[in-house]
Amino acid sequence: MLRILLADDEPLVLIGLQGMLEWEKLGYTVCGTARNGRIAQELIEREQPDIVIADVKMPVMDGLDLARACHEKGPLPVFIMLTSSEDFSYARRAIEAGVVDYLVKMELTPQSLCDALARAAEQVQKEKALHDTPPRMPSRTEMEAGLRTLQDRFLIRLYAGLIPDQEHLQKEKKGLELPLEGCLAAACCEILPAKAGMTSEQLLKLNLACCQMLETTLHNYLSVHATGTDVLHFNVLFALPEEPAGGLKALLEPLLKKASQIVYNYFSARLLWAVGRPVQDPLSLSRRCRELDTIRVLLSEAEPILFAVDLESDATASKLQTVAQVKAYIREHLSEKLTLADVAAVFNFSPGYLSQLFGRYGGGFVEYITEVRVAAAKEMLEKGDKKIYEIAEELGFESSFYFSKVFKKSTGLSPREYQQK
């Protein structure tokens, strides 16, 4: 896979270039970005890209001087130049600097960029064949990515209880640079995307972006390491030198709310958090993660953060399990008439007790049924293979009019408006 470096003093241009192509599918990987020629020169020496896409006009060192300086040392990297004008003098200087292509930004399209990259890639292959380039040592970025992969694999094994004892723990964590001393806490996080129907690739990108944004936001306050477990979930390890005097919840809750809001502002995705009790021994994290399974089913947009420390008693755990069972029953019987009295009878409860139980631990009985039905309706509307009255009937609404009323109250759009949007 050929390595690409992007250099432009305009942040929006850098973002646009990164989003213009599906780089990995085309056989390229973007190994870095730079805002001026001097930074680009340093990155070129460190990352050893095969192709550089650079703006002609940049502060400190312009793109043509950068290309000339690089080609004095050797034929690689190959340069593609971007410019805001069609001035022939730039084109002539670009040719003199050994640039293989010269593109005008206003005329740039995915196709023209692909064509330029293909020509540059051909030149790279010729130069490598001509000079019989020896195997390249991994760059710093590649080393960091490799370390991150090993860290994530280790933590997934730790969370799953696959590290048997202290001897194996000390052996496996050696060289991984993970903070596993002091006060440790694990949290499970679920991502609620802004829209349903996203592809696996889109969900994976969202997961990675959420993890990166979370770590960037919280690293000034405590050590944080987010590890994806599937495309819609990730675990987070929080580490502190010692447990805060006011307790871990007092520290973490406002930070998680802040991080969740930032993620929502950038990606329109909401985060649901189940946070475990703190431990001193890293091997205890697997037990804490198992405890979180009961809490996770209680999370909702109305109650997006729950701490195990608030739900420690046996009586509370039993009630949580009961609510989880009732919720599972509701999800499996959405097409039926789900009154409080009917569902209470299934579990041999009085309606009053079930209402009180759901109000304390489930976010409200009617509210939960509405939330689940609306979520299911969104998926059906996006598939587009059923009429609105069919969806209303399948989800247990008494009429399509009532369904539309509930749906609009929940989403701000009528079912038809949502489907068209």
Automatic annotation (TrEMBL):
GO terms for molecular function: DNA-binding transcription factor activity; sequence-specific DNA binding. This is Stage 0 sporulation protein A homolog. It comes from Candidatus Faecalibacterium gallistercoris. The modification 4-aspartylphosphate is found at residue 55. One of its GO terms (biological process) is phosphorelay signal transduction system. May play the central regulatory role in sporulation. It may be an element of the effector pathway responsible for the activation of sporulation genes in response to nutritional stress. Spo0A may act in concert with spo0H (a sigma factor) to control the expression of some genes that are critical to the sporulation process. Residues 3-120 form the Response regulatory domain. Residues 324-421 form the HTH araC/xylS-type domain. Keywords: DNA-binding, Phosphoprotein, Transcription, Transcription regulation.
